[in-house]
């Protein structure tokens, strides 16, 4: 018998595994109102660039409303996996609100981003609040940028109907 088959934690698919191409992109807004813990899991596949030195910058934004186009970025902790097929994770790394950087050497790696609702929601600055999203900004032209993102939330209260992404 499964101990969690999406009954304890809440899994919210935010970005389907598709080619994002030459675009800056963001997930939808995720409401942390009823979350005790939240982790964004971003899987990056092939990252092929037209130049040899290319970066993706991953920032996290919080806002007081899911209807906003703005919000404020915040600092976070993350871990990054080794390539697919390995069972290793890098050290927990703190990153400033300017975000973390991935390069073409990050092919087939997964990034785990800790989004603590108690910090993001309890100490809002201008434009921040309980809604969060991830944004990926490119530094130059990508031919291929495969990625998917899922959020894993631990609800504050158990229930059969869970909170949904907005």
Compact overview of the structure:
With 166 residues, this protein is an all-beta fold. 2% of the residues lie in helices and 48% in strands. The two termini are 32 Å apart.
Describe the structure.
The chain is built from one helix and twelve strands. With 166 residues, the chain is an all-beta fold. It has a six-stranded antiparallel sheet with strand order 1-12-4-10-7-8, with no helix packed on it. Strands 2, 3, 5, 6, 9 and 11 form a six-stranded antiparallel sheet that branches. A hairpin with an 8-residue loop joins strand 5 (55-63) and strand 6 (72-73). The longest helix has 4 residues, at 117-120. The radius of gyration is 16 Å and the shape is globular. 25% of the residues are buried.
Q: Strand tally, please?
A: 12
| DSSP strand content | over 45%
Distance between the termini: 32 Å
Number of helices: 1
Characterize the overall form.
Answer: globular
Structural class: mainly beta
Provide the residue-averaged pLDDT: 80
Relevant terms:
166 residues; mainly beta; six-stranded antiparallel β-sheet; 1 helix; 12 strands
